[in-house]
Amino acid sequence: MSEQEETAEFATTTHPTAKAFFDALDTRSSSSRQSLNLRRRVQSLGWRNRHSQAKYYPCTVNGIGFSVKQVQRGEVDGTYGTGATVWPAALVLIKYLERNPSLLQGKKVADLGSGTGITSVASALLGASIVICTDGEDSVVQLAESNLQHVKQELTGDVLQSFSSEKFSVQRYWWGDDSMMGHQDCEVIIVADCVLPKLYPIAPLVQAIDELLVSPTSVAILSYEHRYYPDYHPRSKFEELATQRGLLVEQISGTKLDPVYSVDDIEIWHVTRRE
Ligand SMILES: C[S@@+](CC[C@H](N)C(=O)[O-])C[C@H]1O[C@@H](n2cnc3c(N)ncnc32)[C@H](O)[C@@H]1O
Protein backbone atom coordinates (compact mmCIF):
# COMPACT_ATOMS: atom_id res chain seq x y z
CA MET A 1 0.00 0.00 0.00
CA SER A 2 1.39 3.41 -0.91
CA GLU A 3 1.82 6.09 1.74
CA GLN A 4 -1.01 8.07 0.12
CA GLU A 5 -3.35 5.08 0.27
CA GLU A 6 -2.34 4.45 3.89
CA THR A 7 -3.13 8.06 4.85
CA ALA A 8 -6.49 7.86 3.09
CA GLU A 9 -7.33 4.60 4.87
CA PHE A 10 -6.33 6.08 8.25
CA ALA A 11 -8.57 9.09 7.60
CA THR A 12 -11.60 6.88 6.93
CA THR A 13 -10.98 4.20 9.59
CA THR A 14 -9.77 6.24 12.58
CA HIS A 15 -11.68 5.49 15.77
CA PRO A 16 -13.97 8.44 16.61
CA THR A 17 -12.26 8.98 19.98
CA ALA A 18 -8.82 9.06 18.39
CA LYS A 19 -10.10 11.38 15.68
CA ALA A 20 -11.53 13.71 18.30
CA PHE A 21 -8.20 13.60 20.11
CA PHE A 22 -6.24 14.58 16.99
CA ASP A 23 -8.82 17.21 16.01
CA ALA A 24 -8.49 18.66 19.48
CA LEU A 25 -4.74 18.90 19.06
CA ASP A 26 -5.23 20.82 15.84
CA THR A 27 -5.49 24.44 16.90
CA ARG A 28 -7.06 25.29 13.54
CA SER A 29 -10.03 23.05 14.29
CA SER A 30 -13.44 24.51 15.09
CA SER A 31 -13.58 26.79 18.11
CA SER A 32 -16.93 25.45 19.27
CA ARG A 33 -17.49 24.97 23.01
CA GLN A 34 -17.21 21.21 22.59
CA SER A 35 -13.92 21.47 20.77
CA LEU A 36 -12.59 23.87 23.38
CA ASN A 37 -13.51 21.52 26.21
CA LEU A 38 -11.90 18.64 24.39
CA ARG A 39 -8.74 20.65 23.83
CA ARG A 40 -8.66 21.52 27.52
CA ARG A 41 -9.06 17.87 28.39
CA VAL A 42 -6.22 16.83 26.11
CA GLN A 43 -4.07 19.61 27.50
CA SER A 44 -4.83 18.54 31.06
CA LEU A 45 -3.14 15.20 30.37
CA GLY A 46 0.07 17.15 30.83
CA TRP A 47 -0.65 18.16 34.43
CA ARG A 48 -3.71 16.48 35.84
CA ASN A 49 -2.22 13.25 37.15
CA ARG A 50 1.38 14.00 36.39
CA HIS A 51 2.61 14.11 39.99
CA SER A 52 -0.22 12.25 41.69
CA GLN A 53 2.08 9.32 42.52
CA ALA A 54 5.11 11.41 43.47
CA LYS A 55 6.41 11.42 47.03
CA TYR A 56 6.74 15.20 46.85
CA TYR A 57 4.23 17.11 44.72
CA PRO A 58 5.93 20.13 43.07
CA CYS A 59 4.17 23.43 42.49
CA THR A 60 5.19 26.88 41.26
CA VAL A 61 3.38 30.13 42.01
CA ASN A 62 4.57 33.51 40.80
CA GLY A 63 7.78 31.79 39.76
CA ILE A 64 8.46 30.43 43.26
CA GLY A 65 8.82 26.66 43.45
CA PHE A 66 7.97 24.49 46.45
CA SER A 67 6.74 20.97 47.12
CA VAL A 68 4.49 19.13 49.57
CA LYS A 69 4.79 15.56 50.75
CA GLN A 70 2.05 13.09 49.79
CA VAL A 71 1.23 9.80 51.51
CA GLN A 72 0.12 7.47 48.76
CA ARG A 73 -1.44 4.79 50.91
CA GLY A 74 -3.22 7.27 53.14
CA GLU A 75 -6.58 6.87 51.41
CA VAL A 76 -6.46 3.12 50.86
CA ASP A 77 -5.45 2.20 54.41
CA GLY A 78 -7.75 4.82 55.90
CA THR A 79 -5.09 6.65 57.91
CA TYR A 80 -5.52 9.98 56.15
CA GLY A 81 -8.81 9.75 54.25
CA THR A 82 -8.53 11.75 51.05
CA GLY A 83 -6.29 14.42 52.53
CA ALA A 84 -2.83 13.03 51.88
CA THR A 85 -2.55 13.71 48.15
CA VAL A 86 -2.93 16.82 46.02
CA TRP A 87 -6.17 16.83 43.99
CA PRO A 88 -6.39 18.38 40.50
CA ALA A 89 -9.01 20.89 41.69
CA ALA A 90 -6.42 22.28 44.13
CA LEU A 91 -4.15 23.11 41.21
CA VAL A 92 -7.00 24.75 39.26
CA LEU A 93 -7.75 26.88 42.33
CA ILE A 94 -4.10 27.85 42.87
CA LYS A 95 -3.66 28.87 39.24
CA TYR A 96 -6.94 30.83 39.31
CA LEU A 97 -5.74 32.72 42.40
CA GLU A 98 -2.36 33.36 40.78
CA ARG A 99 -4.09 34.83 37.74
CA ASN A 100 -6.34 37.07 39.86
CA PRO A 101 -3.89 38.43 42.46
CA SER A 102 -6.22 41.00 44.06
CA LEU A 103 -8.33 38.16 45.48
CA LEU A 104 -5.69 37.32 48.10
CA GLN A 105 -3.24 40.19 48.39
CA GLY A 106 -3.19 41.55 51.95
CA LYS A 107 -6.17 39.36 52.94
CA LYS A 108 -6.71 37.08 55.91
CA VAL A 109 -7.40 33.64 54.49
CA ALA A 110 -8.79 30.38 55.93
CA ASP A 111 -8.31 27.16 53.98
CA LEU A 112 -10.94 24.48 54.75
CA GLY A 113 -10.23 20.78 54.12
CA SER A 114 -6.68 21.75 53.23
CA GLY A 115 -5.30 18.23 52.85
CA THR A 116 -1.55 18.48 52.25
CA GLY A 117 -1.69 22.25 52.73
CA ILE A 118 -0.71 23.06 49.14
CA THR A 119 -3.44 25.71 48.68
CA SER A 120 -2.50 27.37 51.99
CA VAL A 121 1.18 27.55 51.05
CA ALA A 122 0.25 28.96 47.63
CA SER A 123 -2.01 31.58 49.28
CA ALA A 124 0.85 32.75 51.49
CA LEU A 125 3.12 33.00 48.45
CA LEU A 126 0.41 34.92 46.58
CA GLY A 127 0.40 37.67 49.18
CA ALA A 128 -2.22 36.73 51.78
CA SER A 129 -1.39 38.58 55.01
CA ILE A 130 -2.49 35.71 57.27
CA VAL A 131 -3.25 32.09 56.38
CA ILE A 132 -5.08 29.62 58.62
CA CYS A 133 -4.68 26.16 57.15
CA THR A 134 -7.34 23.75 58.50
CA ASP A 135 -8.52 20.19 58.09
CA GLY A 136 -10.82 17.98 60.16
CA GLU A 137 -8.56 14.90 60.32
CA ASP A 138 -5.79 14.93 62.93
CA SER A 139 -3.42 12.92 60.72
CA VAL A 140 -3.99 15.34 57.83
CA VAL A 141 -3.39 18.36 60.09
CA GLN A 142 -0.06 16.77 61.09
CA LEU A 143 0.83 16.23 57.44
CA ALA A 144 0.02 19.87 56.62
CA GLU A 145 2.10 21.00 59.60
CA SER A 146 5.08 18.89 58.47
CA ASN A 147 4.63 20.26 54.94
CA LEU A 148 4.83 23.77 56.33
CA GLN A 149 8.18 22.88 57.93
CA HIS A 150 9.32 21.25 54.69
CA VAL A 151 8.38 24.30 52.60
CA LYS A 152 10.27 26.55 55.03
CA GLN A 153 13.41 24.58 54.23
CA GLU A 154 12.88 25.03 50.49
CA LEU A 155 12.39 28.80 50.59
CA THR A 156 14.77 31.60 51.44
CA GLY A 157 14.91 35.34 52.07
CA ASP A 158 11.81 37.55 52.10
CA VAL A 159 9.56 34.80 50.78
CA LEU A 160 10.22 32.77 53.92
CA GLN A 161 8.72 35.62 55.98
CA SER A 162 5.24 34.61 54.77
CA PHE A 163 5.56 31.51 56.94
CA SER A 164 6.34 33.09 60.28
CA SER A 165 4.09 31.78 63.07
CA GLU A 166 2.05 35.02 63.23
CA LYS A 167 1.25 34.76 59.54
CA PHE A 168 0.75 31.04 58.96
CA SER A 169 -0.92 28.56 61.30
CA VAL A 170 -2.21 25.02 60.94
CA GLN A 171 -5.27 24.00 62.96
CA ARG A 172 -7.77 21.18 63.24
CA TYR A 173 -11.21 22.44 62.23
CA TRP A 174 -14.17 20.16 61.59
CA TRP A 175 -16.78 21.99 59.50
CA GLY A 176 -19.59 23.43 61.53
CA ASP A 177 -17.97 22.61 64.88
CA ASP A 178 -18.46 25.29 67.44
CA SER A 179 -14.99 26.79 67.55
CA MET A 180 -13.02 29.98 67.45
CA MET A 181 -12.88 29.86 63.65
CA GLY A 182 -16.02 32.02 63.33
CA HIS A 183 -14.32 34.77 65.35
CA GLN A 184 -11.27 34.94 63.13
CA ASP A 185 -12.84 37.47 60.72
CA CYS A 186 -11.32 35.87 57.65
CA GLU A 187 -11.82 37.85 54.46
CA VAL A 188 -11.32 34.93 52.11
CA ILE A 189 -12.21 31.26 52.65
CA ILE A 190 -10.64 28.84 50.19
CA VAL A 191 -11.88 25.29 49.68
CA ALA A 192 -10.40 22.87 47.13
CA ASP A 193 -12.25 19.73 46.14
CA CYS A 194 -14.37 19.29 49.26
CA VAL A 195 -17.81 19.01 47.61
CA LEU A 196 -17.73 15.22 47.54
CA PRO A 197 -21.14 14.06 48.79
CA LYS A 198 -20.34 10.38 48.38
CA LEU A 199 -17.76 10.78 51.16
CA TYR A 200 -18.66 13.95 53.02
CA PRO A 201 -22.12 15.48 53.53
CA ILE A 202 -22.45 18.91 51.91
CA ALA A 203 -24.53 20.54 54.68
CA PRO A 204 -21.68 20.90 57.28
CA LEU A 205 -19.45 22.54 54.65
CA VAL A 206 -22.17 25.05 53.73
CA GLN A 207 -22.76 25.66 57.46
CA ALA A 208 -19.03 26.31 57.98
CA ILE A 209 -18.93 28.76 55.06
CA ASP A 210 -22.03 30.51 56.39
CA GLU A 211 -20.44 30.85 59.85
CA LEU A 212 -17.11 32.08 58.50
CA LEU A 213 -18.46 34.64 56.00
CA VAL A 214 -18.99 37.23 58.71
CA SER A 215 -18.46 40.39 56.69
CA PRO A 216 -20.58 41.34 53.64
CA THR A 217 -17.37 41.75 51.63
CA SER A 218 -15.87 38.37 52.53
CA VAL A 219 -15.89 35.62 49.93
CA ALA A 220 -15.49 31.88 49.83
CA ILE A 221 -13.68 30.60 46.74
CA LEU A 222 -14.21 26.93 45.99
CA SER A 223 -12.89 24.62 43.33
CA TYR A 224 -15.30 21.84 42.50
CA GLU A 225 -14.60 18.70 40.47
CA HIS A 226 -17.74 17.23 39.02
CA ARG A 227 -18.23 13.52 39.64
CA TYR A 228 -21.31 11.69 38.50
CA TYR A 229 -24.04 10.86 41.01
CA PRO A 230 -27.14 9.09 39.73
CA ASP A 231 -29.50 10.74 42.22
CA TYR A 232 -28.60 14.40 42.13
CA HIS A 233 -26.15 17.06 41.06
CA PRO A 234 -23.81 18.15 43.90
CA ARG A 235 -23.72 21.75 42.60
CA SER A 236 -27.54 22.02 42.72
CA LYS A 237 -27.54 20.58 46.24
CA PHE A 238 -24.79 22.96 47.36
CA GLU A 239 -26.67 25.91 45.81
CA GLU A 240 -29.94 24.88 47.44
CA LEU A 241 -28.35 24.68 50.91
CA ALA A 242 -26.41 27.92 50.40
CA THR A 243 -29.54 29.79 49.22
CA GLN A 244 -31.40 28.64 52.35
CA ARG A 245 -28.66 30.37 54.36
CA GLY A 246 -28.83 33.60 52.37
CA LEU A 247 -25.67 32.88 50.37
CA LEU A 248 -25.11 33.46 46.67
CA VAL A 249 -23.14 30.94 44.60
CA GLU A 250 -21.62 32.18 41.33
CA GLN A 251 -19.67 30.07 38.88
CA ILE A 252 -16.65 31.92 37.53
CA SER A 253 -16.38 32.10 33.76
CA GLY A 254 -13.77 29.84 32.18
CA THR A 255 -12.13 32.90 30.62
CA LYS A 256 -10.97 33.98 34.08
CA LEU A 257 -9.30 30.63 34.76
CA ASP A 258 -5.73 29.82 33.84
CA PRO A 259 -5.81 28.66 30.21
CA VAL A 260 -3.61 25.64 30.93
CA TYR A 261 -4.82 24.66 34.40
CA SER A 262 -8.51 24.50 33.57
CA VAL A 263 -10.73 21.74 32.33
CA ASP A 264 -14.47 21.42 31.76
CA ASP A 265 -15.20 19.19 34.77
CA ILE A 266 -13.54 21.46 37.35
CA GLU A 267 -15.29 24.72 38.23
CA ILE A 268 -14.49 27.72 40.40
CA TRP A 269 -17.30 29.15 42.51
CA HIS A 270 -17.50 32.36 44.53
CA VAL A 271 -19.84 32.28 47.51
CA THR A 272 -20.89 35.58 49.08
CA ARG A 273 -23.60 36.78 51.40
CA ARG A 274 -26.69 38.01 49.53
CA GLU A 275 -27.42 41.69 50.20
C1 LIG B 1 -10.56 15.49 48.52
S1 LIG B 1 -9.67 16.12 49.89
C2 LIG B 1 -9.09 17.68 49.27
C3 LIG B 1 -7.78 18.06 49.90
C4 LIG B 1 -7.17 19.35 49.34
N1 LIG B 1 -8.04 20.48 49.56
C5 LIG B 1 -6.84 19.22 47.88
O1 LIG B 1 -7.67 19.64 47.05
O2 LIG B 1 -5.78 18.70 47.53
C6 LIG B 1 -10.96 16.60 51.06
C7 LIG B 1 -10.42 17.09 52.40
O3 LIG B 1 -11.52 17.52 53.21
C8 LIG B 1 -11.31 17.09 54.56
N2 LIG B 1 -12.63 16.97 55.20
C9 LIG B 1 -13.64 16.15 54.87
N3 LIG B 1 -14.70 16.33 55.67
C10 LIG B 1 -14.35 17.30 56.55
C11 LIG B 1 -15.04 17.95 57.63
N4 LIG B 1 -16.30 17.63 57.94
N5 LIG B 1 -14.38 18.90 58.31
C12 LIG B 1 -13.11 19.25 57.96
N6 LIG B 1 -12.41 18.67 56.96
C13 LIG B 1 -13.03 17.71 56.26
C14 LIG B 1 -10.60 15.76 54.41
O4 LIG B 1 -9.89 15.40 55.59
C15 LIG B 1 -9.69 16.02 53.21
O5 LIG B 1 -8.44 16.51 53.62
TrEMBL record:
Pfam families: Methyltransf_16 (PF10294). SUPFAM superfamilies: S-adenosyl-L-methionine-dependent methyltransferases. GO terms for cellular component: cytosol; protein-containing complex. Gene3D superfamilies: Vaccinia Virus protein VP39 (3.40.50.150). InterPro entries: Methyltransf_16, SAM-dependent_MTases_sf. CDD domains: AdoMet_MTases (cd02440). This is Calmodulin-lysine N-methyltransferase. It comes from Cylindrotheca closterium. The lineage of its organism: Eukaryota, Sar, Stramenopiles, Ochrophyta, Bacillariophyta.
